[in-house]
Amino acid sequence: MKCCQIALGILGLGITILSAEQILHVYPTGSALVGEKGFRDLSAAVRSATPGDQIWLHGGVYRESWTVDSSGTTNGPLKIRNAPGELVIIDGRDPISGVSEEISPGLWRIPFAGEVKQLFWNDTPMLLARWPNTTFDRLLTRDGWSAVDEFSSYGKIKDRKLPATGVDYTGMEIVLNVCHQFFTWSRKVTKHNAEYQVLLYPQDLGKAMETMKDWPRWHDDYYYLQGRLDLLDAPGEYVQEEGYLYFRLPSGASPSGGRLYVKTRDYALSFESASGVAMKGIRFFATAICADKVRNLWISDCHFDYPSFASVPPEWNPEKEKVVNAVAGIKLSGDHIRFSWSSIRNSYTSGLILSGGDNWVQNVLVENVNWHGDLLDSGIKVSGTNKEMPNKVEFSTVHEFGAVGIQVNGAPAVIRQNHVYNGGALSHDVSLIYGRTPAIDGTIIEQNWVHDCLGERFGIGIRGDDQTRGMHLRNNIVWGCNDVGIEIKGDLNSVTGNLIFGTGLAGILYDCTPEPEKAWVKMYPVIDKQNANSVLKDNVTDGIIGLRGRPYYGDLSGEVDNNFIFDDAWLANQAGGGVHEAIERLSLQMVEEQRTLLPRDPGYRNGVIIMKNEDGYLQVRLRMPVSEAHSLFVELRNASGNIYAQELSFSPDNWQSYQTVPIVYDAQAARIYTPAWGEVIATEIEGETTLSFTRSQ
To answer: How far apart (Å, rounded) are the C-alpha atoms in residues 237 and 255?
Structure first.
């Protein structure tokens, strides 16, 4: 048997998997088994494998759930991957059988008594019937939420828009984003008084709400109602009642034009107490993966669409000190986990939750996640368990999210060279990168681009929140936040060499007040003056304040030195241009040592996978998604210098499908280039080759 090598493609690590002992084959239902090592069940193949073996999933759609509890070794991991050149989709849905009937124009029903976690029309997701109506592409806006009127309070919503609906909402599910608006809850309406335009809900949102029930912030709350047949009035909505699914198809379609699918599997693949396992080249649709107590798990070139969905948001229960209504998502727990060259898109909850030590997220795209605006879920959350083994998030892009983009919990982490933007869309008080408590002492957040925090009142770029200790913010570029670019509380922090502009209040809030007691978080011993032992220097910013509403610079705590503060007039006199030009001219004010460390092109990179097929063609596909059509130019050349060139076009729909280029002149090398990303060169085109561009999207 011909031996092969597989490079995991983790930037800078140089990890190579050694030659495989044997290849086991897994085939989807409906296809023929080939050879004596053919399986229908991945779990059975795993149990038959030994360290160093490869398990190839052949092309097609799989609708199963599997558990991997076997192990390889560090030098001979168990390898699970797509068969080279084949597209593998693990689908968390099952088709609904039965005959639909139209009970009124555009309103259909079909018998279905099972649980409905999420409904799809073909591959288009549908929404649980709700008021106010919205569409899937507007979930990260307030279009689908109703704003309360004045005189609302804890447990009471007053809304003059309610009588016009003509619906009695008593007993209906209400989703609440209220008070400080960085948590979201779901309750049942206990009373609806249409005459007085009032809804009542239980006053049991946790102990913290008892201390804040007299706050004036109940007057700008948001909410929506959902889940009953009398709300089913818009295309793309559904509801389940009395053994039937009622639905209105997107764009007024007829059930004869496609098929309904219901999500049935939260986790299609679970890793339990496994070690030394590598997985690559698999697409997941409407399902996720999880891992518990694993070591040395490598995941690369895997892509997740619609990994999680639920009708109600998760909720922190302070009395029980746990999360209730927890929703599935990509959750990996253990040590020495590598998650790279992968994407997570369209997730109701988080993108990725990674807990343990020495775990590494690298070259990952997370977009359109957290549709409920709760701090419990983030684009990427790293929860460390070992101060000596920090987790890392590097060269990744997180954008379009309801609350926090990247969150650090538990133990220190390194957050470096990421692009985080367009977040906080459904939260009143939020930052794009977030951490707090003394546990994260030693966290480094450096060389990131962070911009456009959409939080309505307190939209912040990077935040070290209550009782932060030892957070080090250096050489980040932050702009477009309606409150402050960087907020740092606590002590023993450093804020150095950052560039902040285009903020609503000030570039930096460097809190110098006494540390307050807070009712809604676990508190450690407080200090009399925050940042007394911190460092603030070499920053270029449009303002520094020590307390909201009280701008001052000369009386700040700790070591404060060499910060350049510009104003709007100075900025207006500079040369025009876009963001890159603004960064360039502002960075000229920084000391040279700091300026050269500013990030120039953060975020995830794309790449290509190429291989020669049996018909003598070169197959080419992208490694990562694209948001718009993108052309790649492929040049094949032989030893005599003959060149054949062809243009390939990839789009958001076909980026993962191979396109073919004929191999002429007995070509032996390939050059693939694009003006946006640069070029990659394969010195030989035998077998499968993975290449990565040097510039980001």
So the answer is: 14
For residue 560, the one-letter residue type is V
**Mean pLDDT computed over 679-697:** 88
pLDDT digits (tens, 9 = 90+) for 380-400: 999 999 999 999 999 999 999
Residue 422, by phi and psi: left (phi above 0), alpha (psi -120 to 50) or beta?
Answer: left
Long-range CB contact pairs, 145-150, < 8 A, 24+ = 145/177, 145/222, 145/223, 145/224, 145/426, 146/222, 146/223, 146/224, 147/220, 147/221, 147/222, 148/218, 148/219, 148/220, 148/221, 148/222, 148/223, 149/197, 149/219, 150/219
Per the CB < 8 A criterion, the answer to whether 688 and 672 are in contact is: no
Dihedral sign, Cα of residue 189, residue 193, residue 194, residue 196: negative
Contacts 24+ apart (CB under 8 A), 15-19: 15/298, 15/338, 17/77, 17/79, 17/278, 18/52, 18/75, 18/76, 19/52
Write the burial class of residue 479 (CB in 10 Å: 0-12 exposed, 13-18 middle, 19+ buried). buried
DSSP string, 515-571: PPP-SSS------SSTTTT-EEES-EES-EESSTT---STT-SSEEE--EE--HHHH
Surface-to-core class of residue 99, CB atoms within 10 Å of its CB (0-12 exposed, 13-18 middle, 19+ buried): exposed
> Which H or E run includes 375?
none
Residues 6+ apart with CB under 8 A from 549: none
H helix or E strand, kind and range, residue 582: helix 579-587
* Per-residue model confidence (pLDDT) at position 315: 85
Measured CA to CA, the distance from residue 35 to residue 33 in angstroms comes to 7
Q: Which of 321, 316, 331 is nearest to 382 (CA)?
A: 331
Tokens of 130: 């709700």
How, if at all, do strands 93-95 and 444-446 pair? unpaired
Bridge partners for 300 per DSSP: 280, 340
What does the alpha-carbon distance between residue 228 and residue 241 come to, in Å, rounded to a whole number?
A: 8
The whole-model pTM stands at: 0.93
Alpha-carbon distance of 173 to 199, in angstroms, equals: 12
Neighbour order of strands in the sheet with 119-121: 93-95, 260-263, 119-121, 124-125
- pLDDT tens digit sequence for 218-227: 888 999 999 9
Distance from the Cα of residue 547 to its chain's centroid = 32
Reduced to 3 states, what is the DSSP secondary structure of residue 252?
A: helix
| Cβ atoms of 425 and 181 closer than 8 Å | no
Q: Are 212 and 72 in contact (CB under 8 A)?
A: no
Q: Please write down the HEC assignment for all residues of 626-650.
A: CCCCEEEEEEEECCCCCEEEEEEEE
Conformational region of residue 272, where left means phi above 0, alpha means psi within -120 to 50, and beta covers everything else: beta
